[in-house]
Specification:
By secondary structure, the chain is of the alpha/beta class. The chain has 3 domains: 47 residues, 434 Repressor (Amino-terminal Domain), CATH 1.10.260; 120 residues, Response regulator (Rossmann fold, 3-Layer(aba) Sandwich), CATH 3.40.50.2300; 138 residues, Rossmann fold. 43% of the residues lie in helices and 13% in strands. The strands form 3 sheets. The chain has a 6-stranded mixed β-sheet, sandwiched between helices. Strands 2-1-3-4-5 form a 5-stranded parallel β-sheet, sandwiched between helices. Helix 1 packs across helix 2 and helix 11 packs parallel to helix 12.
């Protein structure tokens, strides 16, 4: 009978091999992920795994990584993961990588910490890196160094680095889709309201709005103007923009919100002016922030019409692209998205109809 060790001494691979009467190399092959290509039979692998469990054998991951140059660890760099899209992107990454790799998630809230994490990824054994959110563009060279070391890197489109494969949503298409929805309902006066996000992706969504508006002969109107400097909260922006629009236009008119949180300010201000949504004014938004959706539902008894940003899909697609770079079988471009030059061009967002949009009443 083989006795399982309960002391601090680790069972070695040689001891495991001796107990089975086979070579150490055969045990190593049987325990590897590519055992089939090593000429190990299914029965031999079964015997090795059973004896390893019986003896309490555990492979030393550091020793394995040093020998094979493969750690089965993936680094993930992100910003705040307490909620919002970053947490959803991580769920998508984990859904693909969780059964194959260990994820080392580094959540950075500042440039100094981000630099520290990237330096650690560079010095430690990780097989690849997914960047969910890059805070400082000054750190691009650290990321490129990892790629030059032969470690594939994929980014999800925030803080984009030239030369790194990128997975992103077609934000221009999202802005266009929201605007086209309102045009199809008969609106000729449609405004665009910024949120706090002034990133390139928010600007792309506004560009989509402007292109669609101009295509239908509608003069684009945005609040607030980019030149105004300090960015107020999304709720405050919604209040201010709606007050201005009520002075500028008589109903019916419609509003595209870059941030769903702005809907709270818009709806409150409409009520203050004796207007209702969607009878007088229709609104639709980009975003899937649960708190804003719940506030609209609880405070105004409305379900916000919106396009949801497909965060989990972006995460899972980025993970599949990384696996493809790592030469994992079955992890290419399959699925609902098609990569063009490493960029996710499809609008993978879903339209949630809600009841804050309705046909324009011109009577």
């Amino acid at each position: 009978m083989i006795e399982r060790r309960w002391d601090n001494d680790m069972v070695t691979m040689q001891e495991l091999a001796s107990s089975l009467g086979i070579s150490r190399a055969t045990v190593s092959y049987a325990l590897s992920r590519d055992w089939k290509t090593k000429g190990v039979s299914r029965e031999t692998r079964r015997r090795v795994l059973a004896r390893a469990q019986e003896m309490g054998y555990r492979r030393n991951p550091m020793a394995t990584a040093l020998r094979t140059k493969v750690s089965y660890q993936i680094g993930v760099l992100t910003g705040d993961i307490s909620g919002g899209n970053s947490a959803r992107v991580l769920r998508g990454i984990e859904s693909v990588l969780g059964n194959r790799y260990s994820l080392i998630v580094a959540s950075s809230d500042g440039a100094a910490k981000e630099k520290m994490y990237l330096q650690r990824f560079k010095s430690q054994m990780v097989d690849g890196l997914i960047i969910v959110h890059l805070i400082s563009p000054k750190h691009a060279e650290l990321v490129l160094d990892l790629q030059r070391q032969g470690k594939p890197v994929v980014q999800t489109g925030v803080g984009v680095i030239d030369g790194i494969e990128t997975v992103e949503v077609d934000n221009v298409g999202i802005g266009r889709a929201l605007t086209e929805r309102l045009v199809s309902l008969g609106y000729r006066r449609i405004a665009y309201v910024w949120g706090q996000d002034r990133s390139a992706f928010a600007q792309h969504r506004r560009r989509g709005y402007e292109e669609a508006a101009l295509q239908h002969g509608i003069q684009p109107v945005s609040f607030p103007e980019e030149s105004e400097g300090v960015t107020p909260s999304s709720v405050a922006t919604g209040v201010r923009a709606t007050a201005e629009l009520c002075k500028k236009w008589a109903p019916p008119f419609a509003v595209v919100l870059d941030d769903s949180m702005s809907a709270v300010g818009v709806l409150k201000t409409l009520g203050d002016h004796g207007l209702s949504c969607p009878h007088h004014v229709s609104i639709c938004a980009c975003g899937n922030r649960e708190i804003s959706i719940c506030l609209v539902r609880d405070l105004f008894e409305l379900e916000l019409s919106r396009v949801t940003w497909p965060a989990e899909e972006v995460g899972s697609y980025a993970a599949r692209r990384l696996l493809a770079r790592l030469h994992e079988p079955g992890c290419g471009d399959e699925g609902p998205f098609a990569a063009r030059h490493g960029t996710l061009e499809e609008v993978g967002a879903d339209w949630v109809p809600g009841n804050t949009t309705a046909p324009a009443c011109h009577g």
